[in-house]
C-alpha cells in the first residue's frame, strides 16, 4: 500500500533519516521501533508531508506522493497523530470531531446567507457520526467535556477518533502510549485492532512499549541511526542480535547474554 524507497532527510550534516526503505502492507498494523534518535518521528513527518525529503521516494497505492503537503495527503486518506495530542481545548470533545471533515457547507459565507437548511442538515449528520465514533471508542461520557479538561489518554482516543471522521485509509500513530495509563492504553489498543479488523484501516505505529507492540503489530520494523535495521515478526525481532545491540549497546548485550 505504501512504499518508502531510499529516503533521506538531512539537517545540515546530521542525517536524521539515512536511506530508509520499507513497505507498509494494506490491512496491516505495522510497528516501527528503535532507540531515541533513530529517526522514527522524522520519517513519519516526511511521509506525512510535514517535512520535505532531502531525497528518496514515497508511493501510496502506486502513486508518487513524495513531498505532498498534509492537506493533499489528508484528501488521499493518509493521516497521522502526534506524540502530544493537538486538541482544540476550548471546544468540546464532540466539536473536536465534528470539525474534521473538509469543505463543510458552513465554511462558505454564501451558504450562511442562503443555504442555512443545508448547513443544519450537515451539522446534524456530523453530530450523529461524531457520536457513533465516541461510542465506538467507549468515550461517549466525555462528549460534552471541554477537550482541555480530559486526560492525556482520552486525548489520544480523540485523535484516533478524528481519523474515523474521514474514513482514513492509512494512519500513522506516533507514540500513542506516551503518558497514558495501562487501562486507557488497552482501550486504545482495542480500538486500533477493531478499526483494522472491522473497517480495514492500515496502521503504522511508533511505540516504545514492547508489550503493546507485541500485542498489536505484525510486522515490526526496527530503525537505528536513520536506517532500517531489521523487519519481521515481533518475537523474532526481539531475538535479533543487531536489534538487541541497537537498544542496549554492546556492553549490556554481552551482559544479558551471560545472565
How is this fold's topology laid out?
Elements: E1 2-11, E2 14-24, E3 29-33, H1 40-47, E4 55-60, E5 63-64, H2 70-75, E6 78-80, H3 93-98, H4 109-114, H5 116-136, H6 152-164, E7 170-174, H7 182-199, E8 202-206, H8 210-216, E9 220-224, E10 227-232, H9 234-237, H10 241-257
Pfam families: ABC_tran (PF00005), BCA_ABC_TP_C (PF12399)
Protein name: ATP-binding cassette domain-containing protein
GO molecular function: ATP binding; ATP hydrolysis activity
Overview of this structure, please?
By secondary structure, this protein is an alpha/beta fold. 41% of the residues lie in helices and 22% in strands. The chain has helices at 40-47, 70-75, 93-98, 109-114, 116-136, 152-164, 182-199, 210-216, 234-237, 241-257, and strands spanning 2-11, 14-24, 29-33, 55-60, 63-64, 78-80, 170-174, 202-206, 220-224, 227-232. It has a six-stranded mixed sheet with strand order 6-7-8-3-9-10, sandwiched between helices. Strands 2-1-4-5 form a four-stranded antiparallel sheet, covered by helices on one side. Helix 6 runs parallel beside helix 7. The radius of gyration is 20 Å and the shape is globular. The termini are far apart. Mean pLDDT is 85; it is low at 250-259. Residues 2-250 form the ABC transporter domain. This is ATP-binding cassette domain-containing protein. InterPro entries: AAA+_ATPase, ABC_AA/LPS_Transport, ABC_transporter-like_ATP-bd, ABC_transporter-like_CS, BCA_ABC_TP_C, P-loop_NTPase. One of its GO terms (molecular function) is ATP hydrolysis activity.
Amino acid at each position: 500500500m505504501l512504499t518508502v524507497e531510499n529516503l533521506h532527510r538531512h539537517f545540515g550534516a546530521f542525517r536524521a533519516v539515512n536511506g530508509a526503505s520499507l513497505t507498509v502492507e494494506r490491512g496491516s498494523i505495522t510497528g516501527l521501533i528503535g532507540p531515541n534518535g533513530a529517526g522514527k518521528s522524522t520519517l513519519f513527518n516526511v511521509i506525512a508531508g510535514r517535512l520535505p525529503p532531502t531525497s528518496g521516494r514515497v508511493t501510496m497505492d502506486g502513486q508518487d506522493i513524495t513531498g505532498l503537503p498534509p492537506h493533499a495527503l489528508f484528501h488521499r486518506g493518509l493521516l497521522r497523530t502526534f506524540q502530544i495530542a493537538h486538541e482544540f481545548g476550548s471546544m468540546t470533545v464532540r466539536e473536536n470531531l465534528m470539525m474534521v471533515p473538509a469543505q463543510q457547507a458552513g465554511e462558505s459565507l454564501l451558504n450562511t446567507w442562503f443555504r442555512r437548511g443545508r448547513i443544519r442538515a450537515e451539522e446534524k449528520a456530523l453530530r450523529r457520526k461524531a457520536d457513533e465514533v465516541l461510542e465506538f471508542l467507549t468515550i461517549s461520557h466525555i462528549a460534552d467535556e471541554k477537550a482541555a479538561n480530559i486526560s492525556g489518554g482520552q486525548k489520544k482516543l480523540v485523535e484516533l477518533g478524528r481519523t474515523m471522521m474521514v474514513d482514513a485509509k492509512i494512519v500513522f500513530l506516533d507514540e500513542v502510549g506516551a503518558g497514558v495509563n495501562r487501562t486507557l492504553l488497552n482501550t486504545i489498543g482495542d480500538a486500533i485492532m477493531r478499526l483494522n479488523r472491522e473497517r480495514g484501516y492500515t496502521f503504522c505505529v511508533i511505540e516504545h512499549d514492547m508489550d503493546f507492540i507485541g500485542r498489536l503489530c505484525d510486522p515490526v520494523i526496527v530503525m537505528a541511526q536513520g536506517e532500517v535495521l531489521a523487519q519481521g515478526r515481533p518475537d523474532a525481532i526481539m531475538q535479533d542480535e543487531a536489534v538487541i545491540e541497537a537498544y542496549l549497546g554492546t556492553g549490556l548485550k554481552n551482559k544479558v547474554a551471560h545472565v
